[in-house]
Amino acid sequence: MIILYNTYDKIENTDDLTITMGNFDGLHLGHQQLINRVLRYKDTKHAVLTYDPHPSEILRKMPFRTLTQKRDKIELLSQFPLDYAIIVKFDEPFSKLNVKQFIEFLQRISVKRLVIGRDARFAYRGVGTIDELRKYFVVDVMNDLVYNHTRVSTTYIKDFLIQGDLGSARKLLNRHYQITGKVLHGHKIGRGIGYPTANIDFDNYYLPRMGVYYVKVFVNETWYHGMANIGHNPTINFSESRRLEIFILDFDEDIYDKKVLVDFMHYMRPEYRFPSKDALIRQLKKDEQMVRSLAKV
Ligand SMILES: Cc1cc2nc3c(=O)[nH]c(=O)nc-3n(C[C@H](O)[C@H](O)[C@H](O)COP(=O)(O)O)c2cc1C
Ligand SMILES: Nc1ncnc2c1ncn2[C@@H]1O[C@H](COP(=O)(O)OP(=O)(O)O)[C@@H](O)[C@H]1O
């Protein structure tokens, strides 16, 4: 898969393309269905056209939390036999393209066919319609993928994550919800209570419900079991901003500044404010036992 990543005016391609286009945040089953339909057409090359950063980030002029970052999308897209991932740098000029200009951009990069969902919108303020696209391209409109009588969408998955329902999120993503980030320095209290915790820079990732989780952690080229806390550490060392910290089982290495992948496996409990440090430590021991039984280690 060739990655074409640039501002829209600098993206070049001359191969005839069947594409699907959209934000594809999460690359969930609905998105996967569109990509698989693209791949059925044998008369052109196959591409996914997506945007980075997420348009809401630019349009609302404030940080926007997403299920996937650019590198995740590339990694997930590369698991399909696509010819191209076209990643348009979403900036103000691109956001202001009118319908005609947007269509001219698609024509310039040799798009011949589009596979899209029923609600597809494009161009400035999303005023471009499917009927407009049909005048210039072959358009294949796919029906919504439905789960529990609800259309599969990024928002629906975020709703499951915020309820701590990782199982449903997993079904719709077709994988565990995963965050990638670097290990930051904390207040060095963790190691003092027998539970050193790697603080993860979760950047603009959408975080699941606050509380304690069984997680799997990939670091130093190896998968480990771990227990994570998403919260404010109310017992010792209260933190104004939310933090994601992980104690990795059977592990003792300095991993500051290293990149880690975190797979959220199971929600265990809410974060509590304990009456003492010892009470917190007693609970952490119980949490560790629970993780060991879930992980069977
Ligand atoms: C699995 C796990 C569960 C935790 N649960 C709680 C909790 O319920 N309440 C709380 O106040 N802190 C909780 N903590 C946070 C610890 O208090 C925190 O790890 C400690 O403050 C270390 O901070 P430091 O990384 O800045 O050194 C938990 C941490 C982990 C790893
Ligand atoms: N089992 C472990 N789980 C998580 N981090 C560990 C572990 N063993 C060693 N470490 C290291 O210790 C650091 C966490 O120690 P801690 O005292 O909580 O400091 P900090 O407050 O900087 O997070 C991690 O960032 C990592 O480099």
UniProtKB/TrEMBL annotation:
GO molecular function: ATP binding; FMN adenylyltransferase activity; riboflavin kinase activity
Keywords (A to Z) from UniProt: ATP-binding, FAD, Flavoprotein, FMN, Kinase, Multifunctional enzyme, Nucleotide-binding, Nucleotidyltransferase, Transferase
Catalytic activity as recorded in UniProt: riboflavin + ATP = FMN + ADP + H(+); FMN + ATP + H(+) = FAD + diphosphate
UniProt EC number: 2.7.1.26, 2.7.7.2
Keyword ATP-binding: yes
A GO biological-process term: FAD biosynthetic process
Boundaries of every Riboflavin kinase domain copy: 172-296
Annotated metabolic or biological route of this protein: Cofactor biosynthesis; FAD biosynthesis; FAD from FMN: step 1/1; Cofactor biosynthesis; FMN biosynthesis; FMN from riboflavin (ATP route): step 1/1
Pfam families: FAD_syn (PF06574), Flavokinase (PF01687)
NCBIfam families recorded: PRK05627.1-5, ribF
Family: Belongs to the ribF family.
Record-given protein name: Riboflavin biosynthesis protein
UniProt source species: Mariniplasma anaerobium
Gene: ribC
